[in-house]
Amino acid sequence: ATGQLPFFGRNPHEVLNRIADGDYPPAATICPLVDRELEDIIALSLASDPDERYQSVETFGRELAAYLDEVGVEPTNAELGRYFRDPKGYVVELDERVCRALTERAQAAADAGQTARAIRLLGRVLELDGHHPGATELLTRLRQRERRNRRLLMAGAGVLTLGLVWLVAQLVPAEAERSEDHRPRPGGSAAAGAATDGDSEAG
């Protein structure tokens, strides 16, 4: 993926220490074309704790095959044969194929409402081809959709706030009226007391 070994040092002892510590530069810092998915696979395969690594070659192979399938590449000997027959031509054709596959998957994600995934896939396309017409057009539409959704969300929040203000405005006067009804009137207690005393004397 990067064209160089993950662990290196000035001598074998330093290399072994780095292997034991899992000390290696992230692949994307060496080759920007390495995306997050591939970097996660690399990180898992090089984990310093054996229990955190892939527990079998088969599991590792399935992860790589799934990654290749997403970018439109079949892990077959025919692919390797085409590469060795014409490395430069194969890389050009491969980039076009990967861009096409990722753009299709980005469109499917966008149609499913998975905007974040679609944008991430388009980012991978634009790493390979910064002027890819399909990717740039779809990315523009997604950004416009995000801005529109953000405006709708803000408008909805404004309506909700106004609704709460109206509700509070209705509740506060009603509560004030109830409090007024239960408040003793001036002289009310004295009059009631006098009436009670009068009744007692009459008895």
Task: Characterize the structure shown.
- With 203 residues, the protein is an all-alpha fold.
- Helix content is 74%, strand content 0%.
- The chain contains nine helices and no strands.
- α3 (36-45) runs antiparallel to α4 (57-70) and α5 (77-85) crosses α6.
- The chain is extended.
- How is the quaternary structure best described? single chain
Query: How many domains, in number, for the residues?
Result: 2
CATH class of the largest domain: Mainly Alpha
Q: Give the amount of beta strand, in percent.
A: under 5%
Shape: extended
Q: How does the major sheet shape up? A: none
The strand count comes to 0
Secondary-structure-derived class: mainly alpha
In whole angstroms, the N-to-C terminal distance is 108 Å
Question: Quick recap of the structure?
Answer:
The chain has 203 residues and is mainly α. It has nine helices and no strands.
Search tags:
extended; Serine Threonine Protein Phosphatase 5, Tetratricopeptide repeat; single chain; mainly alpha; Transferase(Phosphotransferase), domain 1; 9 helices; 203 residues
Task: Please give the structural blueprint.
Blueprint: H1 12-21, H2 27-30, H3 36-45, H4 57-70, H5 77-85, H6 87-111, H7 115-128, H8 133-182, H9 188-202
